[in-house]
Design brief:
The complex is a heterodimer of chains A (112) and B (117).
Chain A: E1 4-6, E2 11-14, E3 19-25, E4 32-38, E5 45-50, E6 54-58, E7 61-66, E8 71-76, E9 85-92, E10 100-102, E11 106-111
Parallel strand pairs in A: 2-11
Antiparallel strand pairs in A: 1-3, 3-8, 4-5, 4-9, 6-7, 7-8, 9-10, 9-11
Chain B: E1 4-7, E2 10-13, E3 19-25, E4 32-38, E5 45-51, E6 57-58, E7 67-73, E8 76-81, E9 90-97, E10 106-108, E11 112-116
Classes of the chains: A mainly beta (112), B mainly beta (117).
Chain lengths: 112, 117
């Protein structure tokens, strides 16, 4: 059973703080890793993708990947109330074809 | 960027009827499309994978005769929920994949909220 695990939260941070979201995956054959943000009742929207070990930065967002530990994280700097949403970690499980497998998501709440 | 149009956004139907959901890639050819279902406060669960011109591959536990998927062209995939029951009420989301890898390899539709009464 290929799994993607996330802490469901809620994760609460004050405005301006750093929010740290974590994700682990079970299949060592996974090759592509994605972070999506989903507002209630809406479709997921892509925040970042990462394919290689290390950090990848895009504005206030930094994705970190450690394939040896099967761990991927998302850091949100200077968190804003508009960042309050559910963050979904998704992994491309190659053996299953090209579908993305999603974690259950972490709910982030940023208080002003 | 790539756009996937999904319709309808909301539908209410009576128990026992069928509902069709359309997913169109507007500016790229989608060789593969995926259908997900999401129950409240749950994650997206992959239902099936369809490739243009071939039969869909369903995930374990998904009834292929109940959830009919047709991917007749490179820009259109449809999901038909047949003989719908209240337990089929859910948020259905399609995702399309073009020919290449990268940040825009997966594009999601806006979702369809199905309510069966």
């Amino acid at each position: 059973q290929k799994e993607v695990e996330q802490n469901s939260g809620p994760l609460s941070v004050p405005e301006g703080a750093i929010a740290s979201l974590n994700c682990t995956y079970s299949d060592r054959g996974s090759q592509s890793f994605f972070w999506y943000r989903q507002y209630s009742g809406k479709s997921p929207e892509l925040i970042m993708s990462i394919y290689s070990n290390g950090d990848k930065e895009d504005g206030r967002f930094t994705a970190q990947l450690n394939k040896a530990s099967q761990y991927v994280s998302l850091l949100i700097r200077d968190s804003q109330p508009s960042d309050s949403a559910t963050y979904l970690c998704a992994v491309n499980v190659w053996q299953a074809g090209t579908a993305l497998i999603f974690g259950k998501g972490t709910t982030l709440s940023v208080s002003s | 960027g790539a756009v996937v149009s999904q319709h309808p956004s909301r539908v209410i139907c009576k128990s026992g009827t069928s509902v069709k959901i359309e997913c169109r890639s507007l500016d790229f050819q989608a060789t593969t499309m995926f259908w997900y279902r999401q129950f409240p406060k749950q994650s997206l669960m992959l239902m099936a994978t369809s490739n243009e011109g071939s039969k869909a591959t369903y995930e374990q536990g998904v009834e292929k005769d109940k959830f009919l998927i047709n991917h007749a062209s490179l820009t259109l995939s449809t999901l038909t929920v047949t003989s719908a029951h209240p337990e089929d009420s859910s948020f259905y989301i399609c995702s399309a994949r073009g020919g290449g890898e990268g940040d825009y390899g997966y594009t999601f539709g806006s979702g369809t909220r199905l309510t069966v009464v």
